[in-house]
Design brief:
Elements (H helix, E strand, L loop, with lengths): L1 H17 L1 H26 L7 H33 L2 H5 L5 H31 L10 H25 L3 H16 L8 H7 L4 H11 L7 H32 L6
């Protein structure tokens, strides 16, 4: 497994060196979209607007949504590219197994993704005046968010294995995730809060907003919910991906496109 991880790290680094314009362009586009929304909100609300900590919460939600989109698209996009280039069957014939290969590939690209997200966050903070905090405790809810995000990534990968083309599904899914991650679900109470805790990544997102935007301490009770949520969706993603792999092999459509 160590050799597999090292190989995927090398592959990710080579791709970054060969196609830096794509990465830089993505940073510019994502930052420009948020800045356009920010300027529009300022124009509609007038010069006397005071966002307060709401701006910080919005910035955290937008940046987390960007990170999740990178992750969720990762497995499905890689599967489609492998199918188009005719190398998908080689991945599934690997002694490590397809799920381990794509998981190692996702872990290898995580460092680059986090670096890009931090760059985008710093740029947004500079142009909007937002004051995001970075307490050490944010690592814990961030890990649970990544677990749930990778679980969803493998669900989308399973869809790519079965249906082959899932670009439109991914597009719709991105808007659904934007609503989930941008809504202030941590302020919900009663049945609505219980419902939100069952949705993917929502407990982790609320904790990260509290820590980074509001300066609150870590709620350990909610942290337990976030851990359960992350593990549940990660396990679900691996199970669904395994089922899709077996179905594709049984139908003989693994390498088809």
């Amino acid at each position: 497994m160590i050799n597999l991880l090292m190989g995927e790290f090398k592959r990710t680094w080579i791709q970054f060196l060969r196609y830096p314009a794509e990465v830089i362009g993505g940073v510019i586009i994502i930052t420009s979209v948020f800045y356009g929304l920010f300027i529009s909100a300022q124009y509609m609300a007038g010069p006397a607007i005071a966002f307060g900590d709401r701006l910080d919460a919005i910035v955290v939600g937008y940046v987390l949504w960007t990170l999740v989109i990178f992750i969720v698209n990762d497995v499905a996009t890689n599967l489609q590219l492998e199918a188009q280039t005719g190398t998908l069957e080689q991945v599934f014939l690997s002694p490590f197994g397809a799920s381990r290969v794509f998981l190692a590939r996702a872990i290898a690209s995580l460092g680059l993704r986090l670096t890009l997200i931090l760059t985008i966050l710093l740029i947004i903070m500079g142009i909007t005046g937002s004051r995001i905090q970075f307490p050490l405790a944010l690592v814990l809810p961030l890990v649970t968010l990544l677990l749930a995000a990778y679980g969803l990534a493998f669900v989308m990968g399973a869809c790519a294995l079965i249906f082959k083309r899932v670009q439109q599904v991914l597009g719709i899914f991105q808007f659904a995730l934007l609503f989930l991650l941008a809504a202030p679900t941590e302020d919900w109470r009663g049945p609505a809060r219980a419902f939100a805790n069952g949705l993917p990544m929502i407990p982790s997102t609320g904790l990260l907003r509290d820590l980074m935007a509001r300066g609150a301490g870590l709620d350990w009770g909610q942290m337990g919910v976030a851990i359960a949520n992350g593990l549940l969706y990660f396990a679900l993603g691996m199970v669904v991906f395994g089922w899709a792999e077996r179905q594709a092999k049984r139908r003989g459509t693994l390498g088809g496109y």
